[in-house]
Amino acid sequence: MNIRQIITGTSVYTALGLLPALSRVILLPVFLLYLPPEEFALISLYTLLTAIFPVFMTLSLEHSLIRHYFDYRKNRRLLNTYVSTILLFVIIVSLIIAAVFFPFGDWAFRLLFKSERFNFSDFGMFVLLQSLACSLISVMNAYFRTAQWMKTFALFSLGQLLLTTGAEAYAILSLHGNALTVVEFKTWSTIAVTVLFLIYLLVQTGIRFDRRFLPSSMNYALPVIPYVLFGIIFTSFDRIVIENELNLTLLAAFNLAAAIGGICDTFITAIQNATYPAIYDLFKKGYHAHSRAIHTIYRFKGSLILLGAGALGLLAYPLIHAFIREEYLPATGIVPLLMAGFVPRFYYIAYSEPVFFFRQTRRLPALNFIMGVVSVSANLVLIPVLGIAGAAFSSLAARLAQLLPAINLYRSVSDFRFHFGTFHAFCAAFFILSLIAGTVITFTQAAPLLAYILLSLPLLTALLSFFGIRNTIRTNETLADHRRSGKI
Length: 488
What we know:
Helix content is 85%, strand content 0%. The chain is built from 18 helices and no strands.
């Protein structure tokens, strides 16, 4: 098993998977410079809802598609029928959910949000349409990646980036629109590119619906719904509490920190999506025989996660101070606190991903339920006392509370054991240094020089970790080449 080829291939899909997310990176300065903080906060609430609805619209069948692809891939007609069935079923379910929710939209918005401006009559239809498009995007992306349709995946990702970014930028810079205008242009542009590629995919697979595929897919996917939903509650409930307990300006500051953290989070998701096929393939071929490749992939992923988090933590400080409104300054200390949370996030990924392969998804919701309960409780207690810093500490507490049960679950379903070696020390150092940096910057009047020193230490740790694993990969490949050539 050529580890370098695996990492190179997954790196390409990681980069392609990041293209749609670049829209948020490109537009973030535009939002911050040309929109008042209150308008930026309204867009974040729209984004929150368009993350929740697709969980129910897809029924998490994109996860089932990734896993079942390896069961059907040798029979092209069977695979095409399966993919077509999943797509059509997601469309049907999405339309039913939209129709059922529509009469209760006003009541639900008034119950969840304090702001009268974020109401169902203005934003509701766009939330439902965008959620439908996002549901189809997640299913199509899952298939394009797993089936190795690299060109199609690249065009789809690039199309989302160019069309949605251009539409939102036009709404702000040319029309001088508010949050509602931005949401409208984003929704219609997303629908346009989604429909185009949906037609293309259905032309390739044919339009066939076979309900016999649904029972096994649903048995695999349905337990993932509460798992994903509790995860979204963990990542989103803090915004609801801030909007209710504080104000839209502080929500905008926290949302800036979360958006910067979201860049790394999107990076992690892209890495996960890109490596799923390789990991599943290695486990299917025999995880003990390919343990070296599995360990190397996970250590490489972990090093990239630390590197991305460390770089963002350092760069965010000068960018916020130099280019952004004064209302966003509280975000400078929140960013490194959120970055520290990516250490337990990595370990959770390592111990939970194989659980999907072993078809033990019914046991996963308990993990995110624990995280959700800790997150909700901590946010309700800490945000009124510590402000938006309370949300960051709640995030750390929830991630740590989730990790130990995840390790125990993994050990109960697999006899394969991870051995990360010195990478444990790098992770521990990164976590502690990021926590110190965020706490000092948030609660003291830290001088810029001290802040830069504190923020550079986690990045230095990440760099040492990255170069260490890179050298390990080179050494392993050299030894493998020597063995193949008979030199050793």
